[in-house]
Write a structure and sequence with these properties.
The structure is a homodimer of 262-residue chains.
Chain A (H helix, E strand, L loop, with lengths): L1 E5 L7 H8 L5 E5 L2 H10 L6 E3 L5 E3 L3 H25 L4 E5 L6 E6 L2 E4 L2 E4 L5 E7 L1 H9 L3 E5 L2 E3 L4 E2 L3 H11 L4 E6 L17 E2 L15 H13 L4 E6 L5 H6 L4 E3 L1
Parallel strand pairs in A: 1-2, 1-13, 2-10, 5-10, 6-11, 13-15, 14-16
Antiparallel strand pairs in A: 3-4, 6-9, 7-8, 11-12, 15-16
Helix pairs in contact in A: 2-3, 5-6
């Protein structure tokens, strides 16, 4: 089984990715939608706001209104766009969010911020991270010939929808399914030594030395590398960061083009 | 098995509906989202446009941009709002659109309109009606303890997402599942003799005389009655038009409050 995560950043060519996904048996997909969420939020008069924690961790401010827009973009627009394209390629895809069938369950966080010099807990923020994956529902669909296409949000222990990072959700799912490979596709060639130079690709990382590469992981790459380390720790064979902008991006990644961590 | 369809019109109290749904075993839900689609479309600078056919049939003009907004509202906002509320009520709901797992398949229509005195076929309109229901996927979920929450769009024979009427989709699903009852909840008490007088409720209709009541079916009630006739023709025991604004709306409908057609 392979798990293909395709990002939601600008420049992703979904047609190329999905044409390649359609060549494989026994695949699960996870997707993002951040760029489109920024667009639609802005059009709806609710431009994106980011929070930075004391440790420098950046996350999206997700109040109830933002979460409703998040659901629209991730579960509505992006998920059904991918399912429709897969159906056109002859793949019987089923799109699910993490709240459907309690597919992804996790702990809700209560972010602390500093406002006017005072520390404050944001009580109306709905973010968190995935702790548990309902493998039974995914297996039920795979065994019956469906390709699951999974997207955040997840469900909190109090049954609230929560915004979770897609890369780390993908890592949790790959771990829970004992996937042979987790392919994480985005709009860059992989992990770069110099974030401004696509030629500075790091081609191979030993799993047990992966932590040493954290300094190279800038921006969104940070969570991808964290997810990769978690997945490898939990038995996933290989994690590959591949380029979503090339022909046959899944196949190329599986052939070792990109950053291979194993 | 009962099928509960809850409309998407203004004034629907989803909490009441879902609290009542949670009391039943062996339920499938179908929902709409028309009022919220009108809101969000307007906010996104794409206000709703309706088409009227030569026979007086009114439908939403669904160009590709409208369909993407349709997916956002129906599959994203409304579907996940319902799934989240059901999870909070202890019901393990799974939300699906008609394109997921080819759940609802039908023929795409090519609406004809008159523009500047000339007849014209709208080639970029994505509407149609449901011909086939993938009962296997619904049964698979029911047999494994999930409550399916189903929404348009459906999938055309050419694998395009198409906007289909939710009431008639619900009728097709109820028929395909041989449901004992199809409960159609909306923001009125049922079929009225006088559309402006809620006291003029028609309480009972014999299934074989249902066509005679078509003149009373104004606006959206027309498709509900058409759907009811189709469902009864195909073996559904009872169809009830009930009021979604009261306490225990499903239970009251099943007790005969509303318009009972059998």
């Amino acid at each position: 089984m392979i798990l293909v995560k395709v990002g939601g950043a600008v420049g992703i060519d979904y047609d190329r990715v999905l044409q390649d996904v359609a060549r494989y048996q026994d695949v699960v997909m996870v997707h993002g939608g951040s760029a489109e969420l920024n667009n639609i939020s802005t059009l709806l008069g609710k431009p994106p706001r980011m929070l930075t924690s004391a440790s420098g961790h950046v996350s999206r401010r997700t109040d109830p209104e933002t979460l409703a827009i998040f659901n629209m973009v991730y579960c509505g627009k992006m998920n059904k766009m991918i399912v429709e394209k897969l159906q056109q390629l002859g793949v019987n895809a089923v799109g699910l969010s993490g709240i459907d069938g309690r597919l992804l369950v996790g702990k809700r966080k209560h972010p602390r911020v500093v406002e006017n010099g005072k520390k404050k807990v944001l009580r109306d923020d709905y973010t968190g991270r995935v702790d548990r994956v309902n493998v039974d529902l995914i297996t039920l669909l795979l065994d019956n010939g469906f390709l699951p296409v999974i997207t955040p949000p997840a469900l909190s222990y109090d049954n609230e929808a929560i915004n979770v990072d897609g890369d780390r959700a993908a890592a949790s799912i790959a771990s829970a399914l004992d996937a042979e490979a987790l392919v994480i596709l985005s709009n860059i060639p992989g992990l770069l030594r110099d974030v401004d130079d696509e030629a500075s690709l790091i081609e191979h990382i030993d799993a047990d030395r992966a932590e040493e590469y954290m300094p190279f992981a800038q921006g969104r790459m940070k969570k991808k590398l964290l997810g990769a380390i978690e997945a490898l720790d939990q038995g996933v064979g290989t994690v590959i960061f591949g380029d979503a902008r090339v022909d046959e991006p899944v196949t190329r990644a599986l052939q070792g083009r990109g950053t291979v961590i194993q």
